[in-house]
Amino acid sequence: IYWADGFVFVYSITDYQSYRVMRPLHQHIRRIHPNANIPLLLVANKGDLLRARQVSSKEGAQLAAELGGSYHELSARENCEGVGEAFQQLCQDVGRAIGSCNGEKRRGLHLVRPKSPNMQDLKRRLKQALSSKGK
């Protein structure tokens, strides 16, 4: 959560409890990133199970607007293209958000991302470890 460039919230249209978890989850993220404008994708899954629907499309769209994210209702089982389109939209939103930072780190992040290890340093350490075992 600390290093995320975007968030995907998924709930089932056949399970109202999964829908109700979205607001508290968003509030938790807002406590961690109070001023950050991190893109959010709200996905209503199981769109193929309309007879078992407990959450309306209108409720989902309203929640997405309230949370400041985009909304997609889909069926991962029957429409994998829709899943791809939703994630592509999120990637575009993340690109715009990062691009708007003008090369600066986004404010509101509490932890710095860990640096990738230097391969030369790792090789040196491995050689030292192997040579010390042989002695």
UniProtKB/TrEMBL annotation:
Nucleotide-binding in keyword set: yes
Q: What PROSITE patterns does this protein's entry cite?
A: RAB (PS51419), RAS (PS51421)
- Keywords assigned by UniProt? GTP-binding, Hydrolase, Nucleotide-binding
Judging by the UniProt lineage, the source's domain of life is Eukaryota
The UniProt record lists the EC number as 3.6.5.2
**Which SMART domains would you find in this protein's record?**
RAB (SM00175), RAS (SM00173)
The record's Gene3D superfamilies line, in alphabetical order, gives: P-loop containing nucleotide triphosphate hydrolases
Catalysed reaction(s) here are:
GTP + H2O = GDP + phosphate + H(+)
| GO molecular function terms listed in the Swiss-Prot or TrEMBL record | G protein activity; GTP binding
Question: Can you name this protein?
Answer: small monomeric GTPase
